[in-house]
Amino acid sequence: NIKTGYLVLYNAASCAGWSYVLGLVLSELAQNGGDFTTVYDRVGWILMIVQTGAILELVHAIVGFVRSPILTTAFQIASRLFLVWGVVDIFPEVQSHWAFTTMAIAWSITECVRYSYYAFNLVGVQLYSLLWC
User: Fold this and answer.
1) Alpha-carbon distances, residue 105 vs 2, 18, 40, 50, 110 (angstroms)
2) Residues 117-128: pLDDT tens digits?
């Protein structure tokens, strides 16, 4: 099924993108002794690209690839895009704040779990560890 193959690829790519963001954040923190003020410089642009890719989730809901509610999906995506494009990108003082780093880590962990769960579920594999997470 082409639709399933595409969705597996989309979810795997999204998981890889968020894993990359998480790795960069943790690497930057490790290299700088936990100094969060430089994290944005290392991951800001990549985070914006990966987060913007979530627009495809709205497309998936609109065309019926997934059963997600369109309005809920739109609000979730819009709120995150507002944060990365409308707040973090416009206000430089947010970029070096600890809240940016914790947001990036929280989003990365959450999305790695979510996208990998969806990808495995689409191929008929249900991992208890992902379900638990």
Assistant:
1) 33, 9, 12, 13, 9
2) 999 999 999 988
66 sits in the region (left: phi over 0; alpha: psi -120 to 50; else beta) called beta
Cα–Cα distance, 80 to 78 (Å, whole number): 5
127: DSSP letter:
-
In Å, the largest CA–CA distance within the chain is 48
Can you tell me the distance from the alpha carbon of 46 to that of 49, in angstroms, rounded to the nearest whole number? 5
Is-contact 8 108, C-beta < 8 A?
no
Position 131 confidence tier, pLDDT thresholds 50, 70, 90: confident
Query: Is residue 13 a contact partner of residue 110, using CB atoms and an 8 Å limit?
Result: no
